[in-house]
Design goal:
single chain; eight-stranded antiparallel sheet
């Protein structure tokens, strides 16, 4: 699955000007503070902006001054943040006719609210491009409280003057409001793009929460922190074939594991707990007593076997708590699951990178003088040429660790 094709960011955190081509599986590598987390946060920001609107998404990250690029001599010019996403989500979209969305925002003059609190205004404009039918395209532009609709295949107005309407509040994103447009005017297509962003998941396992029993009614969707792990595993157990495969993978990742069992838990709501049957142990082990690595392995497998995942899943430090011995299987499962959800994954492990293909690797580094993130730091085409030339004599992880591909301290 490849709903997101390219992501470009200007002046977002350390991403002064980056453009990244995405595949079904994308693994980011690079030293600490190179901007990997900022790139993932860019994806999370788009999701927050759709669900909560633009200002709350900015406030959640400490305000505009923390969101905007702050590094190097260009700091004074970095006052407008621009994000462009190319995707394939609407009915007539294709790799040759991609959906596109651009958001630009900057901070305006400060003003005093009732009560004396000072707040700065936000200026924002947006643009949507998509194929409305098989034969023609459509462009929607938003500036302040007005938007304009163009029927276009050449990016120029057709059929007389473009149509403008005052349907927007000054700071409300068109992503949130324009899906209410009639389908023949682009509402359906804008809704598809908004839905893509709103379902982004940044998977960050909260091990203490994942150890606990969880209410069965919370098992419908795996939470981003895996706090409902027990209930979601119980739901997956309803498909015998899927659960059998998950348990087989868990046995490979958790030494001594024989089987996964469920125990009802009494209380005000119906809940379930997970217990592990382990080789040579007389009693079962509850998740509360299982190792950190075992919890992470089960949570990752639950995510990888999710039959209805979001369109894109981001994972920080996917190798954390896992033994390198299981990386072959982990990468295989990531590739299998990438037919259902696109992955954007971060790792610091050369051993895991050794299992990747050149097309799956994205190298990141930070410019020493300007402070900006370089993504990709290594030209993907050059990485593919090196991989072909080596013909398996050296892995990508060894090349990266040696400094050949960049992205090292």
């Amino acid at each position: 699955m490849r709903p997101l094709v390219t992501v470009r960011a200007k002046n977002f955190r350390s991403l002064r000007d980056v453009k990244v081509e995405l595949q079904p599986l994308n693994v980011l590598v690079g030293p600490n503070a190179s901007g990997k987390s900022n790139f993932l946060d860019l994806i999370a920001f788009l999701g927050d902006a759709v669900r909560e609107d633009l200002r709350p998404a900015i406030t959640k990250r400490g305000g505009f001054e923390q969101v905007a690029f702050r590094g190097g001599a260009r700091q004074a010019q970095a006052r407008t943040v621009e994000i462009t996403v190319e995707a394939i989500v609407t009915r007539y979209a294709s790799d040759r006719a991609r959906d596109a969305y651009t958001l630009r925002f900057s901070q305006g003059k400060a003003w005093k609210r009732p009560g004396g609190r000072t707040m700065a205004t936000l200026r924002r404009d947006e643009e949507f491009r998509f194929k409305r039918t098989q034969g023609s395209g459509r462009r929607l532009t938003i500036n302040g409280t007005e938007f304009t609709i163009y029927d276009t295949s050449t990016d120029t107005p057709r059929k007389g003057k473009p149509r403008s309407e005052n349907l927007l509040q000054k700071e409300s994103l068109g992503l949130s409001t324009l899906p209410r447009l009639a389908s023949d005017r682009g509402g359906e297509q804008v809704g598809k793009i908004a839905d893509l962003f709103s379902t982004f998941r940044v998977f960050d396992i909260n091990v203490p929460a994942a150890r606990l029993p969880s209410a069965l009614e919370r098992g419908e969707k795996l939470q981003p922190d895996a706090a409902n792990l027990a209930a979601f595993l119980h739901k997956l157990s309803g498909d015998a074939g899927t659960f059998r495969d998950l348990v087989d993978d868990a046995r490979a990742m958790i030494p001594g594991l024989e089987h996964i069992h469920f125990r009802p838990v009494g209380g005000p709501e119906e809940a379930i707990a997970v217990e592990l049957e382990e080789r040579a142990l007389r009693d079962r082990t509850s998740l509360a007593d299982a190792s950190y690595g075992s919890i992470r392995a089960l949570a990752l497998l639950a995510m990888l076997y999710d039959p209805a995942p979001p369109r894109l899943t981001c994972i920080e430090e996917i190798d954390h708590g896992l033994h390198p011995y299981v990386f072959d299987r982990l990468v295989e499962r990531l590739r299998d699951a990438s037919s259902r959800t696109q992955f954007l994954v971060v790792t610091h492990s050369p051993a895991l990178v050794n299992r990747l293909r050149a097309s799956e690797l994205i190298v990141c580094e930070r410019h020493r003088e300007s402070g900006e993130t370089l993504i990709p730091a290594a030209d993907p085409e050059e990485v593919r040429k090196i991989e072909k030339k080596l013909a398996g004599k050296m892995g990508l992880g060894e090349l990266w660790f040696s400094g050949t591909l960049g992205g090292t301290p």
